[in-house]
Every structure is written in C-alpha cells, then in structure tokens.
Amino acid sequence: MARETSRDRRERVAAMQAAQKKAERRRLLVVIGACVAVVAIIGAAVAWAVLGEQNKKDEALSAISGDVAAASCDPITNDPASGSSEHVGPGTNQPNLTTVKYSTVPPSSGQHFAVPAVDSRRVYTTADAPKIETLVHNLEHGYTILWYDRSVETEQAAAFEALATKVNAMKESANKFLISPWDPAYGAFPAGKKYALSHWAADVDQSTGKVGQQMGHRQLCGSLNTTVVEDFVKKFPWSSAPEPGAA
User: Fold this and answer.
1) Where are its TM segments located (predicted)?
2) Where do runs of H (alpha helix) occur along the chain?
3) What are 197-209's pLDDT values in tens digits?
4) Residue extents of the structural domains in the chain
5) What distance in Å separates the CA atoms of residue 220 and residue 131, rounded to the nearest whole number?
6) How do residues 103-146 score in pLDDT, each as one tens digit?
7) CB–CB of 143/176 below 8 Å?
8) I want to staple 205 with a disulfide (CB 3.0 to 4.6 A). Which of 47, 54, 85, 210 is the partner?
9) Is residue 124 within 8 Å of residue 179, measured between CB atoms?
10) What letter would DSSP give residue 189?
11) What is the SS3 string spanning 42-57?
12) Alpha-carbon distances, residue 172 vs 72, 90, 176, 211 (angstroms)
C-alpha cells in the first residue's frame, strides 16, 4: 500500500471539510425551512383567530341591528337632575352613606361616590361591576350607560363587547360609553324591559365652561338594538354633561 503523502492528507482533509460544510448547509436549510413553516402556521392561526373573532362581532351586531320598533323602547324621559358634585360614601363628609336611594330606575343623576370608574373596561359583568353610586359619577362626567337585566348577561356577552367597541368609536361618545348590569336592589326594571340607557345632560357654555340647566334622560327597552343606542348617544353626547372634561 502506497504511503500517504502530505499532499494526499491535505486533499483528504479538504474533501472532508467540504463535505462537512455541505452537510451543515443542508441542516441549516432544513432548520430555516422548518422555522418558516412554523411561522407561517402560527401566522395563519392568528389570522384565522382574528378573522373568527371579527366574524363573531359582526354576527353579534347583526343580531341586534333589526327593526327599531321591535325593540319595544319607551320614549326618552326628561328627569329633573340633582346631586351635581354631591359626593357621599368613603372619603367624604358622609362616609356611612354607601347606598343612595335614587328617584328613578336606573338613575340619570344623583349623589354619587367621590371616585368614578376610571379603568379601561367598557363592559362589566355581574362579577365585577362597580357600584351604582360609582357609575353615577361617570354619568356626571358625560358617560352614557347601558344597563342590562342580569338574566341576559350570558346570551348577550358577545353583543355587548361588539356594541361597546362600535359606540365608543363614535365622536359623540368619545370612549365614554359603558355597559353594566343593573342591580335590582335599587329597584326593578318595569315589566318587559331588559335594557335601559341613561345620561346626565347639561347645557355647557363652550367659551366659559359654565354649566347651565341640567336634565337626566333615560330610555328603557325590551330588546337590545344598535340603532336605538347610537341615536341616544347622538342625542346626548359626552360634551353635554355637568363635568364633560373629567375622565
């Protein structure tokens, strides 16, 4: 057998190194291909989930966008307003007054807790809803609230989320539209009514900020209807309130 020369060894080592690099390139391409495939699968899954969620919202809105007359809504009320800047409960000079007896169901004005609901939530459930006295403070700041009978909470969950997103995008709302369950301890909704809108309106001089006449407004309905809610918010925008500039 011929003795291997230095040149032969160099050529053999070079060939082995070339083969190793080629194998490494193949492995790298396989890894890259696998990563691309995984990213594509994840992207498709995310897109499908987003599309599915949007479809659910569209379907939910469609289900509550029927004939306005079928919603069985009462005429909008004009309630005498009271309680502007009248804080009760913790941190006030009436700390033990933690349950206010409001003159209407639901309230459209009145005494309230010192701190409104200021989190990012726009739809509340029975498990996490603020107290009525807290939300009345939101009314004073220009919010419109859609109160709902607790019996519809589960079946309308998707509709509530979709409706809140749609209405809060309106310029008349300016992200000041809340949906919250009604607490029957404060009085029952009239027979056949499952939903109620309320807003604490006020005439505000835009040049001076001076607040003039105040009035509460409510509209109670048997069914949920997008057009009814939008029309109510347009009629009573966030800027018509005793303290519209507050959060």
Assistant:
1) 28-51
2) 6-63, 132-140, 157-168, 226-235
3) 999 999 988 778 7
4) 1-63, 69-235
5) 20
6) 999 999 999 999 999 999 999 999 999 999 999 999 999 999 99
7) yes
8) 210
9) yes
10) P
11) HHHHHHHHHHHHHHHH
12) 24, 32, 9, 19
